[in-house]
């Protein structure tokens, strides 16, 4: 039985993780952390991770980028505790902090916990390897009107994966409105749409001469991200230091 500390337990994703765990017998949420506790839960809730007293094996984090450093500090002071970092919107400095911390801590970091999205990324890498610079790449992501960061972490995951295939020679373009020039060859366009209750949709467009190839993924429920996070928590229980992601899980 894997004991989970759920950070961001009172948010929408926190509620989804609770539902995912409720239907399983191989894990349990023993405590939660949320700066603004709301509603009732079957476990104690703290306003900061430092106050947690329960025995924890894995932290599942769907909170806020500002909580990263306290979570890493908790893991350092509790040897053997792993963290599944599902929060999006980390800065470049915070991403480096995760990479550095993983030398001593077992960390699982993915900006999208969906198996389908991670398969989409692999397909995009394959398409880029085959099509090369004869096709332009544009990424379109759509999310609900409450999402704060743009472009989405998943869109950046896709762009980074494609860029790796091109030896990181591509640059990202986020706003063509401010530009009055033709599209450059070595760029990846990223476009964000926010509206309604869209859970998450991503399109990767490869536009060539007289033909267009589009790869797409549509998330129809937050439950799939919650399920992926719980599976990652079970996977991380007992793991040694290192930086893990969905490629290790699948």
TrEMBL record:
Q: Which CDD domains match?
A: DHDPR_N
Q: What are the positions of the active site?
A: 143, 147
UniProt-listed Enzyme Commission number(s) = 1.17.1.8
Ranges annotated as spanning the membrane? none
| Domain Dihydrodipicolinate reductase N-terminal, residue spans | 3-113
Name the top EC class.
oxidoreductase
Keyword check for NAD: yes
- State what protein this is by name: 4-hydroxy-tetrahydrodipicolinate reductase
């Amino acid at each position: 039985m894997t004991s989970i500390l759920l950070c961001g337990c009172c948010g929408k994703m926190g509620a989804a993780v609770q539902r995912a765990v409720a239907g399983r017998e191989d894990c349990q949420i023993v405590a939660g952390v949320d700066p603004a506790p709301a509603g009732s839960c079957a476990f104690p809730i703290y306003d900061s991770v430092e106050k947690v007293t329960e025995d924890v094996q894995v932290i599942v984090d769907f909170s806020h980028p500002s909580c990263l450093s306290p979570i890493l500090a908790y893991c350092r002071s509790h040897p053997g505790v792993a963290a599944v970092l599902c929060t999006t919107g980390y800065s470049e400095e915070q991403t480096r902090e995760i990479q550095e911390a993983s030398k001593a801590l077992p960390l699982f970091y993915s900006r999208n916990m969906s198996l389908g999205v991670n398969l989409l990324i692999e397909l995009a890498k394959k398409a880029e390897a085959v099509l090369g610079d004869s096709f332009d790449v544009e990424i379109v992501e759509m999310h609900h009107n409450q999402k704060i960061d743009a472009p989405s972490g998943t869109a950046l995951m896709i762009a980074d994966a494609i860029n790796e295939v091109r030896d990181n020679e591509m640059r990202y373009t986020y706003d063509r409105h401010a530009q009055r020039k033709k599209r450059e060859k070595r760029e990846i366009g990223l476009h964000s749409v926010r509206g309604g209750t869209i859970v998450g949709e991503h399109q990767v467009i490869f536009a060539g001469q007289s033909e267009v190839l589009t790869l797409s993924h549509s998330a129809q429920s937050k439950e799939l991200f919650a399920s992926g996070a719980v599976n990652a928590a079970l996977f991380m229980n007992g793991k040694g230091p290192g930086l893990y992601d969905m490629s290790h899980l699948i």
